[in-house]
Amino acid sequence: MYMLFNPRSLNNKANDVMGLMDDKGIAIASICETWLDDDSNATTSIIKSHGYSILHEFRKGMRGGGVAVIFKTGLPVTQCKLTRIFQSFEFIAVWIRTETTKIILVTLYRTGALTSIFPNELDVLLSEISTKADDFIVAGDLNVHFETTSGVEKQCLDIFTSYGMKKLVCEPTHIGGGFLDQIFLFSLNGTINHSASVEPLNSLGSDHFPVFCALNIRLKGKYFKEIHVRNLAQINENEFSSDLQEILDSTATDRDFGPAVHDLSSAFSSLLDHHAPMKKKSISVVDKAPWFDKEYRELRKLRRQAERTKNISEDAFLFYKELCLQTTILAKKKKKAYLGNIIQHAEGNTRTLYSIVNKVLDKQKVHSLPETDNIEKLASDFNQFYIDKIDKIRENFKPDSNSQDSSHQFCDTSAQLFEFMPATAEEIQKIIGESGIKCSPADMLPQQLLEGNIGSLLPTIVDLVNLSLRSGSMDGVKLADITPLLKDKKLDGNNLNSYRPVSNLTFLGKLVERVVLKRLN
């Protein structure tokens, strides 16, 4: 089920709007006049707590306006970047992947006097999206009286029909009358059936009515994902430490650095497999609020029942409206109690407090990736992309044999470096104390186990560091776990060039680098 609605600000109605979407089973909604003023804030946090995600455009430095697409988390909805900027309306375009095709949905909001600029820009918009997809939908509060059959209103309707688009809403959508909120649909093969209806009894405090539209499209949702994890909590610390010490006692470090690191990594991997074997785990990608408990779900169930009978009489509608208010109040009460309990038990823990604030204000880091059905191929594509990028950068640093720039000459070319002073256990301990222990997935041991057994591991770590310093080798530790991060939310998430690589280096590799830095300084 799809919904189009202008709530006249989500900021003070987010719980009510999300309650309506929950009750109606809305998968995707176009929202006009969001009044949001930031990419993420307390309002977007409320939306996500209901198991939905949001893509939106807002007015920078201006009040009001804004358009959004809200959809169930896990559905394949991504932003679609169009090349043109328009003056007469605000819009956001998204791709919706179904089991058989991809649909473009454009959510559009227009306000102010209706002039000839709007139909001209509308024509440009439709000409672009019609070349990108076989099926597309344009919906929003256009503030155009489509029931009028003359003037600029008729010109707007003629432009839609010239692209083969059907007008789906045929009843008033505003408290003052008029078909202002409209949905237009084009389906190349005519495979998208539709049934639109307007909800005239609006309890959400807006002068617009929500529009519901049933579309026979099967969305290719992904609500769970498989991960590989080790249950470190089940490890018997004494037994693990004893087995670890046996490995360390039998480890020889008087050989080449690379093989020593490889053999130790293999032994630690077998140790981990014995104490905490790797297991597959299916987890939900939908992050629903934990404060929505049984009491809240029961009240919401009662509200859904009342919603089905609210049109019978005025008393039934008032009862439904009262239940909506009670549900909203209870949701806020539950959220306050839940977060208050966490804060109380945090006992001043700064990390916990920051985590709560980031969750409430929706400032948590979210790692997005390009759409794919083959995550291994995507990883390979990213790997090759960054290799090619580094190769191009290195080409620009090729030495010029004709260059006579003396600024690139060292002041003293007679000094030579033959060896590094060996590291001591005290020095390594001090470096670890200053920089902490931070591990990557490529490390020999997880951070939790490394921290818990650092005393036993220290002599071996010192031996390996000194072996690296003597041999000048970093084989086996100059590894990185690469995470592609989207440079900006406004960029195309399906373009590899929109991502920058963030390297998570191994603990031992960083330790060797810090020792060398101290020697050079």
Give structural attributes.
six-stranded mixed sheet; alpha+beta; 18% strand
Quickly count the helices: 14
Q: How far apart are the first and last residues' alpha carbons, in Å?
A: 65 Å
How do the strands of the widest beta sheet line up side by side?
3-4-2-1-12-11
* Pattern of helices and strands: EHEHEEEEEHEHEEEEEHHEHHHHHHHEEH
The rounded Rg comes to 30 Å
Please summarize the sheet with the most strands.
Answer: 6 strands, mixed
The stretches of 5 or more residues where confidence is low (pLDDT under 50) are: none
The fraction of residues in strands falls at: 15-25%
Shape: elongated
Give an overview in words.
This protein is of the alpha+beta class. The chain contains 14 helices and 16 strands. Helix 5 (237-249) runs antiparallel to helix 6 (257-275), helix 7 packs antiparallel against helix 8 (314-346) and helix 13 crosses helix 14 (507-520). The protein is elongated. The model has no long low-confidence stretch (mean pLDDT 85).
